[in-house]
From TrEMBL, chain A:
<feature type="transmembrane region" description="Helical">
    <location>
        <begin position="12"/>
        <end position="31"/>
    </location>
</feature>
<keyword id="KW-0812">Transmembrane</keyword>
<keyword id="KW-1133">Transmembrane helix</keyword>
<keyword id="KW-0472">Membrane</keyword>
<feature type="transmembrane region" description="Helical">
    <location>
        <begin position="59"/>
        <end position="80"/>
    </location>
</feature>
<protein>
    <submittedName>
        <fullName>Uncharacterized protein</fullName>
    </submittedName>
</protein>
UniProtKB/TrEMBL annotation, chain B:
<keyword id="KW-0813">Transport</keyword>
<feature type="transmembrane region" description="Helical">
    <location>
        <begin position="313"/>
        <end position="333"/>
    </location>
</feature>
<feature type="transmembrane region" description="Helical">
    <location>
        <begin position="114"/>
        <end position="135"/>
    </location>
</feature>
<feature type="transmembrane region" description="Helical">
    <location>
        <begin position="44"/>
        <end position="64"/>
    </location>
</feature>
<feature type="transmembrane region" description="Helical">
    <location>
        <begin position="141"/>
        <end position="164"/>
    </location>
</feature>
<dbReference type="Pfam" id="PF01384">
    <property type="entry name" value="PHO4"/>
</dbReference>
<comment type="similarity">
    <text>Belongs to the inorganic phosphate transporter (PiT) (TC 2.A.20) family.</text>
</comment>
<keyword id="KW-0812">Transmembrane</keyword>
<dbReference type="GO" id="GO:0016020">
    <property type="term" value="C:membrane"/>
</dbReference>
Length: 99, 398
């Protein structure tokens, strides 16, 4: 493996990792934030909720959670694409190994 | 029943035994953080992980057929099939013995490295340095091992930092319960990914053994019974727990909170699932450990126990040569017993007895300071003990 080839692979792995491995959890945190409502610190430094989230915020949060679930389902199907093609003859994404 | 068939059966059983050790050695990669944060009860976590490993093992066979190829120089032994059989067998013995020893010490070393190390050592003993394809070893084993902790550490550090920053106005109670869900989901994905990767490696080895015995055509698909038995072996191993390693990963390295746990598992899952697609399959263990370290680095004020991390790095460095040395020495024992006695099976039998003997000894040793589902989360006391996770002696657990 030459150096340019290697660095190209490493960069691809890092970018995919950042996108899915850091991006999706961060997106989940965005969903959590929409659900946060109003919070304030107590005297002893704990953060407690004083008012629940509004309906709009709740809806936004669930849209985000739904997007994450869909991405995960697609990812698992993508991993299983060859298996599904061989077992059910169903060529998902048109990417399965046609042998 | 011919001698060849009996030996083939022993080799297949040994491969499944390796798969079992692979299972319990790596349960922690997926579930240690969920167990440590209390997101899942220990028994529930290992059961969930076992089921997902079982499913994952059937989902993809991409990895299976590449094992062995590009590492052991098959052409050099193809004229002598019983020779290949002994190499595969003693290679597996090297992998198993190293896995069980590192489990005893509570060290999360890579099972893939143990397997490759054992095979490389046995191949070198049998064929000299030409028995190993060194460029394959560099690109498939060494470089990914060096890169994995850095890549995973980076992704997880960024993830942890983002999560804490974005979720800072969320109340403590909601944070804990919300990220618990995220953590269980991401940990499940890691288990699934583990099944698709690691169960495959044993399937590849069994395929190699069937090939050596002339029982299968090189271009054939992996038979269903091989897939099913490997899936089952790794799932059983996962269910058995490997509590000593779970403890090191969950409690020893970093004190983990639920958002960190989710960041670590999210990073591991994404990297394990995508890296093989880019032609650089990374070891589950190296990725998981790097991710857990990263989750400590990304959170302000979190403590990372660098002493434990250092001990792990040492274990990683010596896994390949150590498993190789065991593979090579058991190959010499097996080979020369066969040569000296003119037997076609005595060498294999002696090696098999060595394997069983050492495993039994290490298991008995582990009972002196047992770690199980009841004390896996006990407070970490860093007294420098080499025994798993510095549990206060006896008493705790059974």
């Amino acid at each position: 493996m030459s150096f340019p080839e290697l660095s190209e692979k490493v960069i691809s792995v890092v970018l995919a990792g950042l996108l899915f491995g850091a991006g999706l959890p961060a997106l989940y945190a965005v969903g959590m934030r929409f659900l946060a409502g109003t919070t304030e610190y107590t005297a002893d430094g704990r953060l407690i909720e004083t008012e629940g989230p509004s309906g709009v915020m709740k809806a936004l949060a669930y849209v985000i959670f739904a997007i994450i679930v869909v991405v995960i389902i697609i990812a698992v199907l993508w991993v299983a694409k060859d298996f599904m093609y061989h077992t059910f003859g169903f060529n998902l994404f048109g990417l399965a190994d046609n042998k | 029943m011919t001698t060849e068939l009996i030996i083939l059966i022993i080799v297949v059983l040994t491969a499944l035994a390796f798969d079992f050790t692979n299972g319990f050695h790596d349960t922690g990669n997926a579930m240690a953080t969920s167990i440590a944060t209390g997101a899942l009860k220990p028994k529930v976590a290992v059961t969930l992980s076992a089921v997902l490993n079982l499913v994952g093992a059937f989902l993809s066979v991409e990895v299976a057929k590449t094992v062995g190829k590009g590492i052991v120089n098959l052409d050099a032994v193809s004229h002598d099939n019983s020779g290949l059989m002994l190499i595969v067998f003693t290679g597996l013995v090297g992998g198993i013995l190293w896995n069980v020893l590192t489990w005893l010490l509570g060290l999360p070393s890579s099972s893939s490295h143990a397997l490759f190390g054992g095979l490389i050592g046995a191949a070198m003993a049998a064929l000299g340095t030409s028995g190993v394809q060194w460029s394959g070893v560099m690109s498939k084993v060494v470089i990914p091992a060096v890169m994995a902790p850095f890549v995973a550490g980076l992704v997880s550090t960024v993830g942890t930092w983002l999560i804490y920053r974005i979720s800072s106005p969320v109340s403590d109670a909601k944070k804990t319960s919300g990220f618990r869900w995220g953590q269980v989901c991401t940990a499940s994905l890691v288990s699934l990914a583990h099944g698709t990767n690691d169960a495959q490696k044993t399937m590849g080895v069994i395929f190699l053994a069937l090939l050596a015995a002339g029982e299968i055509d090189p271009s054939a698909d992996i038979p269903f019974w091989v897939k099913a038995s490997c899936a089952l072996a790794i799932a059983l191993g996962t269910y058995w727990g490997g509590w000593r390693i779970i403890r090191t990963l969950g409690k020893g390295l970093v004190e983990i909170d639920t958002p960190q746990g989710m960041a670590a598992e999210g990073s591991s899952a994404a990297i394990i699932l995508t890296s093989s697609h880019f032609g650089m399959a990374l070891s589950t263990t190296h990725v998981a450990t790097g991710s857990i370290l990263g989750s400590g680095l990304g959170r302000k004020g979190a403590e990372v126990r660098w002493g434990i991390a250092g001990r792990m790095v040492v274990a990683w460095l010596i896994t390949l040569p150590a498993a190789g040395a065991i593979g090579a020495s058991t190959w010499f024992i097996g080979h020369y017993i066969n040569v000296l006695t003119g037997s076609g099976w005595l060498g294999e039998l002696v090696v098999f007895l060595i394997l069983v003997g050492f495993c039994a000894w290490m298991y008995l040793h582990s009972r002196r300071a047992p770690v199980d589902s009841s004390n896996v989360n006990a407070d970490w006391e860093d007294n420098g003990s080499q025994d798993a996770g510095s549990i206060k002696s006896s008493k705790v657990g059974a």
